[in-house]
């Protein structure tokens, strides 16, 4: 995955450490859940290739370990859905595509909504969201503000959807946003790279797992 984005502009690793001061930075880990990443989850059961997700999660694990070691805040995002809170617009979108019911993923009372490989520890921020944007309908912004956080380092799934939506919203809320290009993944060829390119042009600085880990282990 790192090789696939090598031609995109990335922040000079030597300049990164003061930009992601652990005292003011949160590592935001998006949607590492059974339905999105595990072989037994919904996407795995319908035959989606999860190898890019697994590779990204390997790097997310390294980032979480580095963040914890440096004292940066770790924030874990999860989609948790219920029939009574399903988005009307999303249901309509899928119905008009001829796929009614497809939006029923990460149900609250099913294992698919559970964390996969990366689990919360005391002191972490945990956010349950209904759709893509981690800020929409949640207290994520308030929790970040209460901790004095002004910088987000984002990783997770998927680059073109929940990562993209969260990164753009964070920028609109005046956070400095870094996206770890090799610790994100998408499920279709080309989507990862195109999403990274669009975000880099508009609202984020791209970095890599190695650069962030080095910055937090100095």
UniProtKB/TrEMBL annotation:
CDD domains: cysteine_hydrolases. GO terms for molecular function: isochorismatase activity. This is Isochorismatase-like domain-containing protein. PANTHER family: PEROXYUREIDOACRYLATE/UREIDOACRYLATE AMIDOHYDROLASE-RELATED (PTHR43540). SUPFAM superfamilies: Isochorismatase-like hydrolases. Residues 25-210 form the Isochorismatase-like domain. The keyword Hydrolase applies. It comes from Sphingomonas sanxanigenens DSM 19645 = NX02. The lineage of its organism: Bacteria, Pseudomonadati, Pseudomonadota, Alphaproteobacteria, Sphingomonadales. Keywords: Hydrolase. The keyword Metal-binding does not apply.
């Amino acid at each position: 995955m790192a090789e696939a984005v090598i031609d995109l502009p990335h922040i000079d690793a030597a300049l990164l450490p003061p930009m992601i001061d652990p005292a003011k930075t949160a590592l935001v880990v998006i949607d590492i859940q059974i339905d999105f990443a595990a072989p037994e989850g919904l996407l795995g059961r319908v035959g989606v290739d999860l190898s890019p997700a697994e590779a990204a999660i390997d790097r997310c694990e390294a980032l979480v370990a580095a963040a914890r070691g440096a004292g940066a805040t770790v924030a874990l995002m999860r989609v948790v859905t219920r029939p009574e809170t399903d988005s009307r617009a999303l249901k309509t979108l899928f119905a008009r595509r001829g796929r009614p019911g497809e939006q029923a993923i990460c149900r609250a009372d099913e294992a698919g909504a559970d964390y996969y490989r990366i689990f919360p520890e005391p002191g972490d921020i945990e956010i349950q969201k209904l759709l893509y944007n981690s800020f929409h309908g949640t207290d994520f912004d308030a929790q970040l503000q209460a901790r004095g956080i002004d910088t987000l380092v984002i990783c997770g799934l998927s680059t073109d959807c929940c990562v993209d939506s969260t990164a753009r919203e964070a920028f609109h809320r005046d956070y400095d946003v870094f996206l770890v290009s090799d610790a994100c993944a998408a499920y279709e060829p080309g989507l990862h790279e195109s999403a990274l390119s669009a975000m880099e042009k508009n609202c984020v600085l791209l970095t890599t797992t190695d650069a962030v880990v080095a910055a937090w282990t100095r």
